[in-house]
Specification:
This protein is mostly helical and 573 residues long. Among the domains are: 150 residues, no CATH class; 157 residues, no CATH class. It is 50% helix and 5% strand. Strands 1-2 form a two-stranded antiparallel ribbon. β7 and β8 form a beta hairpin. The N terminus is likely disordered.
Length: 573
């Protein structure tokens, strides 16, 4: 199977930017459904650049892709067979709607948002479970994205219901410089780090005052330890900051709170009357006019168009494999959007949809652009087919969480995994029983203790995958890059190696029991790769099994493992 992978080129400045912005797309774009508007923009650019688009994806290709993008895992064998054989002309739309309404969507989006916003930083004051639970509930409610971001930027950790949202600040130790960079990157699409000491040396759009204007919002925030031992945020008076460029050390500048070029006007408060209650060592500092609250109200709103553009671009990249502006945190005039008018339209629609993430993703996945094949059209040179043309579906590496869940589904080893967890809990219980030291009293019931132990054991197994397949903590997730440690892990992981051999009712056990060679190949490929095998693949499988008749279980397990370790399985295409 050939998968669309191209050499990544540095984007050049498009001299025809103004012309592209004015390409006629629709006489009345507001009346056109967003998924159709997307295709009109993309197709117009393909015509302009004389590029050939890929054919529509097969049902199997689409099914696997949309399952991974919206639920974080591949579909089960019977689900794949039923969908592929279904003749309903509207089955793709029905599938998208069903997945978006599922609990798996909520859980998956919580992981996506966590990795995007916290970038796998280690837990400090708020656990990942608390944080992801808050995010999952937000996506289950379809909380508007601007409201979700407002809660995160305005959280102080005092209100127990919103305490998880304070993880963004608390687990960054309320470090001003870290927060300025990450708020700019994640919510505005601009990386201002190199504008901290002077105007950005390479990007004319990123100014020294942008960095320090954003810093005013968070520079007064500190941690406060409550009597219960929990850290929360407090805030000291801060109205402006002074800054000096290293290139002009004798010139001092000032700025109040600003979001890029927009300077905020602060409500006037009499000197000495700034606090709700005068702070002390035992009283948390609470301002009558909170700059963090002002940030939470102004940044994720229509008044800050950069927010809608950045969020639309990130959601697009989530399912399309790359941003219209790429990298995602490099929105500036020397790194123009591949499709400027389309990005404007996406941002405008996101705002008009009241930041409805579920509805926005529905439109993206309904588009013919999303549903294109990842196979390069016949006669097209891959080197002459830019990734940012979206003529062919871009390939994405599976995240560690997607890989773990997909391996569990593919092997059909859910029951085996539960036994692994039970065995680990049993060993822990024996170790505790052998410990003569007194154990602290607990109000938890035995059932609660077991449930918590099972959750922790499962999380520990997922963490194994994160360690091997995840990115560097505190940095954005990188693009797919296979490595020797990853291959060795897939070959030797105790967790995975227990899922593959024929046992209970897992995939290998079911395959060993099959005598029909055609059905065998179908079940193997549907279970692992979510497609039917090609005739050449059927022939090779039959020849291999015939040569290994003396030890069929071992031969079948080897076939399963080979497909699980394949590039095709490890990529979302």
């Amino acid at each position: 199977m050939v998968i669309y992978l191209t050499t990544r080129y540095r984007r050049f400045i498009r001299c025809v930017f103004v012309a592209l912005m004015s390409i006629p797309v629709s006489s009345n774009a507001e009346d056109v459904p967003l998924h159709q508007l997307i295709d009109q923009h993309i197709d117009a650019m393909l015509v302009e650049q004389k590029l050939t688009a890929a054919v529509p994806s097969s049902d199997a290709e689409f099914l696997r892709r949309v399952y991974l993008d919206l639920t974080g895992t591949i579909p089960e064998t019977q689900t794949a067979r039923t969908f592929i054989e279904d003749s309903d002309a509207h089955k793709r739309t029905k599938l998208i709607d069903r997945l978006l309404a599922s609990d798996s969507y909520d859980t998956h989006m919580a992981i996506v948002a966590d990795v995007m916003l916290m970038e796998r930083r280690p837990d400090k004051d708020v656990t990942t479970d608390e944080w992801r639970g808050y995010l999952a509930q937000s996506f289950a409610e379809n909380k508007p994205l601007n409201i979700l971001v407002a809660e995160i930027l305005g959280a102080d950790g005092v209100d127990e219901k919103l305490r998880p949202a304070a993880k963004f600040y608390l687990d960054r130790l309320v470090d001003k410089d870290v927060l300025v960079r990450d708020i700019g990157r994640l919510f505005l699409g601009v990386d201002l780090q190199c504008a901290q000491c002077h105007n950005h040396p390479d990007i004319d759009d990123y100014l020294h005052q942008h960095y320090h204007g954003l810093s005013v919002f968070v520079a007064g925030s500190k941690t406060f330890k409550q009597p219960d031992g929990k850290f929360v945020l407090q805030e000291e008076v801060m109205r402006e900051v002074e800054f000096v460029s290293v290139f002009a050390p004798n010139k001092t500048s000032k700025t109040g709170p600003r979001i890029l070029d927009t300077l905020m006007e602060l409500p006037k408060v009499a000197e000495g009357d700034e606090y709700v209650e005068k702070p002390s060592r035992t009283v948390r500092s609470v301002l009558k006019v909170s700059l963090r609250k002002l940030l939470s109200e102004r940044l994720p709103s229509d008044a800050t168009p950069e927010f809608a553009r950045a969020m639309a671009n990130r959601l697009w990249a989530m399912v399309m494999g790359r941003g219209i502006v790429h990298p995602l945190d490099m929105h500036h005039s020397a790194n123009l959007p591949s499709h400027p008018a389309l990005l404007n339209a996406l941002a405008e629609r996101l705002m008009s949809m009241k930041y409805d993430v579920r509805g926005f993703l529905r439109e993206l996945t309904l588009s013919a652009t999303y549903q294109r094949s990842s196979f390069i059209p016949d006669g097209v040179d891959p080197a002459k087919l830019p990734e940012d043309s979206f003529a062919v579906a871009n390939v994405k590496g599976l995240s560690p969480e997607q890989l773990f869940e997909s391996l569990l589904v593919a092997t059909g080893a859910a029951a085996i995994f539960e036994m692994q967890i039970d065995d680990a809990i049993s060993e822990d219980s024996k170790a505790v029983a052998a410990d003569d030291s007194e154990q602290p009293d607990s109000q938890e019931t035995d059932a609660e203790k077991i449930a918590e132990a099972r959750r922790l054991k499962r999380a520990a197994r997922v963490d194994e995958f994160v360690t091997i397949f995840g990115g560097v903590p505190g940095q954005p997730e990188g693009e797919f890059s296979a490595s020797l440690p990853q291959a060795l892990f897939l070959a030797n992981s105790e967790t995975l190696s227990a899922w593959i051999p024929a046992r209970l009712d897992n995939l290998t056990a079911r395959l060993v029991a099959l005598d029909d060679s055609t059905r065998f190949a179908d079940e193997l490929y549907l279970g692992v790769l979510t497609r039917f095998p090609e005739e050449e693949e059927r022939t090779l499988i039959n020849e291999y099994l015939e040569s290994k008749r003396a030890d069929r279980p071992k031969a079948v397990a080897a076939l399963v493992w080979s497909l699980l370790a394949s590039v095709e399985f490890r990529l979302n295409h």
